[in-house]
Write a structure and sequence with these properties.
single chain, about 450 residues, Carbamate kinase, VC0802-like, 8-stranded mixed beta sheet, 6-stranded antiparallel beta sheet, 15 helices, binds adenosine-5'-diphosphate, binds aspartic acid, binds magnesium ion
Length: about 450
């Protein structure tokens, strides 16, 4: 079995669905194909939800209409026969009727998740219809029947494995399955999701659950690049990464991979292959357990970071002080990314501000608190990077005029992270690219 996941741009146009068909029918190997929503759809659904949360039904209605028009144009080009066109219209009718009904009911978080789930349901149903018209035998699987998360939002790997294998067993002659990325059922049985970009995570969880030989992530670029191609010119694809490197890059902001998508591959030891749907012959990036060379591989950046400084000349040297601080973050289920300490203060960063006010209030018992918002973590990643000669000198020589708020080195052997103000991010990435790769 292998898993092939196609992202938003890869399914975003009717002709792209045709390319996917070619890619998934190239050989006879059994496959589970995981699809994202059409590009732009989850953003549109997020806006619809936000408008409803604000009580602006008119704006929500307008956004729903615009989205529906987009899909009406899409299906006109997707299928050939009148019968299939009618079937495609029925699919749209079902999901847009749902969106129009929610305009009339009161908004809640559960409803928000229902709205966000429409994108992947639509893309997979339309793709399945297209495959049927093309006489490609396959089965459409409802991810909500097997993909589950617990009350902390963590996937329930054991249960996913049992449910999915039962589903697959009930179709013993089927070699091709189509299912939705991103969406899942939560501990209350409601529709939920694996957070933005979560289809990558779905794919790797499905690969783990089915003991797949490989998890292929098909997207709009030829693999992981050595820097953010949206910000830096002349970035290069990286042919090979080990799990640790890929996990650090994904966690520290390389948008091509969902932050959690590597751990299932690492734990269950299957390779992840990043490939370009638009250029299927390009090598892409192979991610596996073996590392090849040591040294700097790539730079990534994670935005919207909040830095918290706790200053306490009285307490810092006392044992148990850090534990008390960590307990506050644990209580509010907020994870810490970076941490540095000095004799009188400890600085740390978080990326989730849901409970920021509560956290600050509790931390104030330990000392004076300073908060810096709109920070960015820039991470320089590479296998055993910490052994690279003169690396710190090279990093800091490249960015002499960028004010650095925090530095983290030695925590992992594969990563150096610096914290800067978000408005310095683009320059920092460009300067580091020059200093480290050119
Ligand atoms: P998909 O919709 O297929 O999941 P995403 O938009 O989530 O695709 O991820 C692919 C995009 O990630 C690329 O188009 C690119 O702009 C962006 N990206 C950011 N950093 C990197 C990187 N280091 N290497 C490759 N792509 C990156
Ligand atoms: N459609 C979802 C999103 O845009 C999930 C994904 O694309 O991976 O975040
Ligand atoms: Mg993505």
């Amino acid at each position: 079995m292998k898993v092939m996941k196609f992202g938003g741009t890869s399914v975003g146009k009717p002709e792209r669905m045709a390319s996917i068909k070619s890619l998934i029918t190239k050989d006879d190997e059994p496959k589970i194909v995981v699809l994202s929503a059409l590009s732009g759809t989850t953003n549109a659904l997020t806006e619809i939800s936000a408008a409803l949360a604000d009580g602006d039904r008119a704006a929500a209605k307008q956004r729903i209409e615009a989205l529906e028009q987009h899909y009406q144009r899409f299906i006109k080009e997707l299928v050939k026969t009148e019968t299939d066109y009618q079937k495609a219209k029925d699919i749209l009718a079902e999901h847009f009727e749902f969106l129009n009904i929610i305009l009339k009911i009161s908004f809640s978080e559960a409803l928000n998740k229902d709205i966000l789930a429409q994108g992947e349901l639509l893309s997979t149903k339309l793709f399945s219809l297209y495959l049927k018209e093309q006489n490609i035998p396959h089965v459409w699987l409802a991810a909500l029947d097997f993909m589950t998360i617990d009350s902390a939002g963590e996937p329930q790997v054991g249960s996913i494995r049992v449910k999915l294998s039962q589903l697959l067993k009930s179709h013993p002659d089927t070699k091709l399955f189509i299912t939705q990325g991103y969406i899942a059922r939560n501990a209350k049985g409601e529709v939920d999701n694996l957070k933005r970009g979560g289809s990558d995570y779905s794919a790797s969880l499905i690969a783990a659950a089915t003991e797949s030989t490989v998890c292929e992530i098909w997207t709009d670029i030829d693999g992981m690049h050595n820097n953010d191609p949206r910000i830096v010119e002349n970035t290069r694809p990286i042919k090979h990464l080990c799990f640790d490197e890929a996990a650090e890059l994904a966690y520290f902001g390389a948008k091509i991979l969902h932050p959690a998508s590597i751990w299932p591959a690492q734990y269950f030891n299957f390779p992840v292959q990043l490939k370009n749907t638009m250029e299927p012959d390009a090598a892409g990036t192979l991610i596996e357990s073996q590392s090849d060379e040591e040294g700097v591989k790539a730079i990534a950046a994670k935005d919207s970071i909040i830095a918290i400084k706790i200053k306490s000349s009285r307490m810092l040297l006392a044992y148990g002080f850090l534990r008390k601080i960590f307990e506050v973050f644990e209580k509010y289920q907020t994870s810490i990314d970076m941490i540095t300490t000095s004799e009188v203060a400890v600085s740390l960063t978080i990326d989730n501000d849901t409970y920021l006010n509560e956290i600050i209030k509790e931390l104030e018992m330990f000392g004076t608190i300073e908060i810096d918002t709109n920070q960015t973590i820039v991470s320089i990643v590479g296998y055993h990077i910490s052994k690279t000669e003169n690396l710190l000198a090279k990093v800091f020589d490249s960015i002499t005029d960028i004010p650095v708020r925090m530095v983290s080195f030695g925590g992992s052997q594969h990563n150096i992270s610096i914290l800067i103000s978000q408005d310095q991010k683009n320059r920092t990435l460009q300067l580091l690219n020059k200093g480290l790769f050119e």
